[in-house]
Amino acid sequence: MDSDSHIQTIMALAELFQNDDDVEAIIAAESEAAIIEILRKY
Q1: Using CA atoms, how far apart are residues 20 and 26, in angstroms rounded to an integer?
Q2: How many domains is the chain partitioned into structurally?
């Protein structure tokens, strides 16, 4: 992984954690697939 992709990942996580609805959906998720579906938006 190069440094640019690492920065992109950090930026995507920062964006995710600013979205309370998606954070709550991840916490409430009952399967790995449900979590992956949320993460794909970022």
Answers
A1: 10
A2: 1
- Residue 23's domain comprises 3-39
Distance CA 23, CA 35 (A): 10
In the numeric block, the tokens 């995710």 are attached to 16
Q: What is the pLDDT of residue 2?
A: 78
User: Of the candidates 40, 9, 11, 5, which has an alpha carbon nearest to the alpha carbon of residue 26?
Assistant: 40
DSSP 1-36: --HHHHHHHHHHHHHHHT-HHHHHHHHH--SHHHHH
pLDDT beneath 50, residues of the chain: none
Its pTM stands at: 0.75
